[in-house]
Amino acid sequence: MRRQLTIAIEGCCHGQLDDIYRHLQQQQQRLNKTVDLLIICGDFQAVRNVTDLETMSCPNKYKQVGGFYRYYTGERKAPIPTVFVGGNHEASNHMRELYYGGWVAPNIYYMGGSGVVKFGGLRIGGITGIFKDFDYAKGYYETPPFRGPGRASMHHVRSYEAFKMLQIRKPLDIVVSHDWPQYIERYGNTDELLRKKPFFEAEVSRGDLGSPVNALLLERLRPAWWFSAHMHVRFQAEVGPHESIFNEGWNGITPYSTQGGENMRRPASVADKPIAAAANQDEIVMSAISDDDEDNTTTCEPPSRPRLALNLPPPKHSAAEEPSAESVVSEITKVEPDMAPKQVDMTAAETDTRPNGDSSLEQEVSETADPKVPGRPTRFLALDKCLPRRQFLEIIDIEVPDDTLGEHPQLEYDAEWLAILRLCHPHMPLSELPFSPPAEAQLSEAASGIPLLPEAMLTRELDWVHSNVFSGGDRMFIPPNFMPMAPTPPPGTPDSASFGLAGHDTGMWNRGRGRGRGNGRGRGRGGYAQAGQHSDVEWVGPRPYVIYPNPQTDELCKLLGIEDKLTQRRH
């Protein structure tokens, strides 16, 4: 027996929770569906107060408190269970308090620096941040008050997170990231992408659009679905079960580096992979989207290879025929026939690669264990930011085993991920020195040469988790143990309040960071929410602390028998 879960995916949030939930409720009414889970792909901006706003890495003129604080205080409650990963514009101090994941508000769950959770039978993985080569190999050296370059580097993904994700050996159904996997544009309609975002052309030509870390994870993990945002455009692609996103294997790419990311170079063979130009005949053609708020002037260097022949299709709408907001919202909830989730067996019941439920706890963990499900492609979907006439929301149905749902699905801990946290925790890097995998990790020929910790070590930790966390049972629900810790503005404070920051842009928010690989080039205004009118509201009372050690983190660390090395570190 199979049942369907209805999942909503949202691109960049930028603090617009009220608008997102309003649009989602409208779509539920229009489609006569009940959405079980909302997934947000970054730039969530869980801002509680003026200190959170100061810590967020973006020019001050774009800083507004937004409406999240009302969900934090309980004035409003998320109507749908919501999970999210972090992007590159977050209240990074707040995210650091919940490094291992946790509730930022009732019914809204942050997946941590990286993580895996379960929901109604689905295994959902996530990784926070964007790739920057100059920070990738470093440890978590940033300490309060998070000033200067450390404020920006907090949202740069680290090799330690990639290493943890690469230890996953059981299939994932969904992976969520903010940045796209590198090369993914070559598995979809690239001409259509470049018609909407022509200033991506140089990066597409060079083959360095997106994150090489996410490409590495996609190649290893091969989930049924991969959801992203960041580029502020809707784009879909599919990597076939027998295709390699690197075309001819890893070619020296590693999940860590001793040279600040120098090993994260593209394989020469990728340059020879043809750009996908022909549209899928089964694809629903989406309306042109206005990018009037984007800066279309690229700052990229000239391409190192000859200009691609792009053969761009003509726009579907002329300037006088821009689609209405209503028409776009109606279209974005459709699922293309070739991507219809009901045709995808998310549980792979016909294979022996994925066990039902959590019985995986009792199965042997092998070095050759592969999270790929034979014959299953990875479907990629990226969405825009929450603005009028943008394709920022999509609803899909996914089939799951009938006995895993229950009447009301809840978020659950994933046993394998908890075992990986315990296994990797002693090696967590806390300085700017490059992270090196533990000596026990061996480059596995069976797993494309990535470093895997030995079978016996992971099996031991799985047994420990099964006995001490799951208490011999098959499931462990994440407790609803949210507790507000930080002060918030008084009720009635407008979303546009900047607490005086908008008029004090020092320009220091990103100095000294260089133009390293993965610098978000060509995004247009760096992907920030549009600068608008700011309310002249000052913060009243003492300045909040930068870090509030969170009881959720304390409880999880005690549950796993590990030390909270980050939020307890005050200097």
Mean pLDDT: 78
How many helices? The count is 14
Query: Which overall shape is indicated by the principal axes computed on the Cα atoms?
Result: globular
Structural class: alpha/beta
β-strand amount: 5-15%
Your description of this structure?
With 571 residues, this protein is α/β, with parallel strands linked by helices. It contains 14 helices and 15 strands. The chain has helices at 17-31, 50-55, 68-73, 92-97, 133-136, 149-153, 159-166, 190-196, 201-206, 212-221, 325-332, 415-424, 455-468, 551-560; strands spanning 2-10, 37-40, 82-84, 102-105, 108-110, 114-119, 122-127, 174-177, 225-228, 235-239, 378-382, 393-401, 411-413, 442-444, 450-452. The strands form three sheets. The chain has a seven-stranded mixed sheet with strand order 10-11-9-8-7-6-13. Strands 4-5-3-2-1-12 form a six-stranded mixed sheet. A two-stranded antiparallel ribbon has the order 14-15. A hairpin with a 5-residue loop joins β14 and β15. The longest helix has 15 residues, at 17-31. The radius of gyration is 22 Å and the shape is globular. Mean pLDDT is 78; it is low at 248-253, 256-367, 506-516 and 519-527.
Topology:
Layout: E1 2-10, H1 17-31, E2 37-40, H2 50-55, H3 68-73, E3 82-84, H4 92-97, E4 102-105, E5 108-110, E6 114-119, E7 122-127, H5 133-136, H6 149-153, H7 159-166, E8 174-177, H8 190-196, H9 201-206, H10 212-221, E9 225-228, E10 235-239, H11 325-332, E11 378-382, E12 393-401, E13 411-413, H12 415-424, E14 442-444, E15 450-452, H13 455-468, H14 551-560
Parallel strand pairs: 1-2, 2-3, 3-5, 7-8, 8-9, 9-11
Antiparallel strand pairs: 1-12, 4-5, 6-7, 6-13, 10-11, 14-15
Helix pairs in contact: 7-10, 12-13
